[in-house]
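Render Carboxymuconolactone decarboxylase family protein in 3D.
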Amino acid sequence: MKRLVWNEVAPQGAKALYGIHHYITTATGLPHEMIHLVFLRVSQINGCAHCIDLHTRDLLKTMPFEKVALVPVWAEVPHLFPDQYRAALAWAEEVTLVSETHASDEAYAAASEAFAPKDLVDLTITIAAMNAFNRLGAPFRLPVQVKT
């Protein structure tokens, strides 16, 4: 079934969402690799094929394939990711699954310990934005670059 191309149908909405993406990638103090890591992990949780494809490609520009392949099980291979990256991944999972986790005090305390206040807010905006993109990409079945 052919689905709508959301950003063509609602270009003003797309522009607003892309504005948040622009803020995340140009105006925060978060490392670009961490941003793409969070984008990928959130997309994996949400099952957005387009975003998984896109952010895997982005992450492979700075991270070896072996590490990218293990992102879904990052907690089992703590030696592969720096402390702050692990904190970002943990917070990304907590916020993405907020209906289950309710952003627990323990998770908030851990994230607050790893990030300065502005960076924690920016990280949370990053997570929220990727969740929004996933909630458009998955239902409208945005295509992937990979071809058989």
